[in-house]
Design a protein that fits this description.
203 residues; de novo design (two linked rop proteins); two-stranded antiparallel sheet; 71% helix
C-alpha cells in the first residue's frame, strides 16, 4: 500500500466524517485505552500472585485461579477494543483504497450506508462484549471465591480462596461497563447525526 493510502487511512481513522465520530475516536482512543492500559494493569497486574487458596499447595492456587479467571479481564477488554475497531478500520481502509474524501462520505448514499453499517456493526460488537463481560465477570467481585477442587483433592471438593483488592476490581468492572454504554450511546448519536445531515437539519 502506498504512503498516500496509508495517510488517507490514518486520517480517516483519526478524523471520522462526523463530529460525534471524532469525539468517539477521542474518547475511545484516549480515555478508554488509557484507563485500561494504566489503571487496568495497576488493579489486575499482580492478581494471580496474590490470589490465595491453600498456601501450602501451589497447584491448588493455580487450579482455582484458572477456574476463577477463565480469561483475565485485561485480555478480554483488550480483545474487545481491537474487535470493536475492526468495522471502522475496514471502512476507512476501503475509503483510502477508493480515494474517497471524508467530506464525500456523507454526500453519496452508498458511502453513507456503508459507513452507517460499520457504526451499527460496532454497536452490535459492543453489545456482545457487554453480554460476555456479564457472563464472565458479573457486576461484583466478592472477597471470597469458593473453588471446586474435586478434580485435584479426594478429601474435599470445595476450598475458600481470597480474592485480592476485590473492591477496587468491582469499581473497575463498573467503569468498564460504563465505558461500553457510553460508546454505544455515541454510536447511536453518530447515526442520528448522519440522518440529520442527510435530511438537511444539520450542515
Amino acid at each position: 500500500m502506498s504512503p498516500n493510502y496509508m495517510r488517507s487511512f490514518s486520517e480517516g481513522c483519526l478524523r471520522p466524517p462526523t463530529v460525534i465520530g471524532q469525539f468517539h475516536t477521542l474518547f475511545f482512543g484516549s480515555v478508554r485505552m488509557f484507563f485500561l492500559g494504566v489503571l487496568g494493569f495497576a488493579v489486575y497486574g499482580n492478581e494471580a500472585l496474590h490470589f490465595s487458596c491453600d498456601p501450602e499447595k501451589r497447584e491448588v492456587n493455580l487450579f482455582c485461579y484458572n477456574q476463577f479467571r477463565p480469561i483475565t479481564p485485561q485480555v478480554f477488554w483488550a480483545l474487545q477494543l481491537v474487535i470493536v475497531l475492526v468495522p471502522g478500520a475496514f471502512f476507512h481502509l476501503y475509503a483510502a483504497c477508493k480515494s474517497i474524501k471524508q467530506e464525500d462520505i456523507l454526500q453519496k448514499s452508498f458511502y453513507t450506508g456503508f459507513y452507517i453499517f460499520s457504526v451499527f456493526l460496532r454497536i452490535v460488537l459492543e453489545a456482545v462484549a457487554f453480554w460476555l463481560q456479564i457472563q464472565l465477570f458479573g457486576f461484583k467481585v466478592n472477597a471470597i471465591y469458593m473453588c471446586d477442587v474435586g478434580a485435584l483433592e479426594k478429601n474435599f471438593n470445595i476450598t475458600r480462596c481470597m480474592v485480592p483488592e476485590h473492591f477496587e476490581k468491582t469499581i473497575f468492572l463498573i467503569a468498564m461497563y460504563t465505558f461500553t454504554v457510553i460508546t454505544v450511546v455515541l454510536c447511536v448519536a453518530e447515526i442520528f447525526e448522519i440522518s440529520c445531515r442527510r435530511l438537511g437539519f444539520l450542515k
